[in-house]
């Protein structure tokens, strides 16, 4: 591709990039803007940001021109709990907005800000073995394999429970398995997303972002435990690498003990 007017070796030298290189048409309908982002990213499934705890948000790329330096900067934007989150991606230098959007989405993917098509991230950043990476890829939302195995094991012990509900009315955070009468809330935690001390490995790519994200997840976990404990609940967290049979026995014992305690107080 030959350089456009005012551009040399991919950099705008003497003139500012034209509006067509970065600015979105002001009268472009919202549906057309969505299609533009999908096309640049390679599909809507390539625009998903993981918020943790199985939640996702669809991101968009925003291009801004810094006239003083004649550079176009790309930002990734998404919403989390009603608040806009922004991450700087880098500078883009193509002659058209479409190409600059496409380059920006490539940067977002390479930095691990968004999910890759197979729902994985850079393999070397996440775990020490392919088996653990495969486990993490399957442990990012509701009805994950570790969660299903745990639920089956608990059910086989004769215990019944509710699935994916908020233990406390008005409390927005949901537990994977809930025993309302015994006030026991069980969380099936993925080793990567919740910072397992045995299997979590610090990301080598975009380490600041992932370190902060895992720390936020862990802080959220601690806050959830605190709120539930203060409300009289017992919180049990089960790592995805744990034996579902052994974990189920631990859960069953706790539920049985609390039920007996409740029954004795009622007498």
Automatic annotation (TrEMBL):
Keyword line: DNA damage, DNA repair, Endonuclease, Hydrolase, Nuclease
A GO BP entry: mismatch repair
Region called Disordered, residue ranges: 1-52
UniProt keyword annotation of Hydrolase present: yes
GO MF term list: endonuclease activity; hydrolase activity
Biased composition (Basic and acidic residues): 8-39
Keyword Glycosyltransferase attached: no
CDD domains the UniProt entry points to: Vsr (cd00221)
Family recorded in the similarity comment: Belongs to the Vsr family.
UniProt cross-references to NCBIfam families, sorted A to Z: vsr
Protein name: Very short patch repair endonuclease
Record organism: Microbispora bryophytorum
């Amino acid at each position: 591709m030959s350089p456009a007017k005012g551009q040399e070796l991919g950099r705008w030298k003497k003139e500012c990039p034209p509006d067509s290189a970065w600015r979105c048409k002001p009268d472009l309908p919202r549906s057309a803007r969505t299609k533009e982002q999908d096309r640049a990213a390679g599909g809507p499934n390539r625009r998903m940001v993981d918020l943790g705890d199985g939640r996702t948000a669809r991101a968009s790329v925003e291009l801004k021109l810094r006239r003083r330096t004649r550079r176009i900067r790309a930002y990734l934007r998404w919403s989390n709990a009603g608040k806009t989150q922004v991450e700087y991606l880098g500078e883009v230098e193509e002659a058209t907005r479409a190409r600059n959007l496409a380059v920006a989405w490539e940067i977002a993917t390479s930095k691990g800000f968004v999910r890759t098509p197979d729902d994985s991230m850079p393999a070397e950043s996440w775990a020490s073995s392919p088996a653990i990476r495969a486990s993490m890829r399957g442990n990012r939302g509701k009805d994950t394999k570790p969660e299903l195995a745990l639920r089956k094991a608990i059910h086989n012990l004769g215990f019944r429970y509710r699935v994916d509900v908020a233990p406390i009315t008005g409390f927005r955070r949901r537990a994977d398995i809930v025993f309302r009468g015994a006030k026991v809330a069980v969380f099936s935690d993925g080793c990567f997303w919740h910072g397992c001390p045995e299997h979590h490995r610090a990301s080598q790519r975009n380490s600041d972002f992932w370190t902060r994200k895992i720390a936020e997840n862990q802080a959220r976990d601690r806050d959830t435990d605190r709120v539930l404990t203060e409300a009289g609940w017992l919180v049990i967290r089960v790592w995805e690498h744990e034996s579902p049979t052994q974990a189920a026995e631990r859960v069953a014992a706790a539920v049985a003990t609390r039920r007996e305690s409740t029954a004795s107080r009622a007498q």
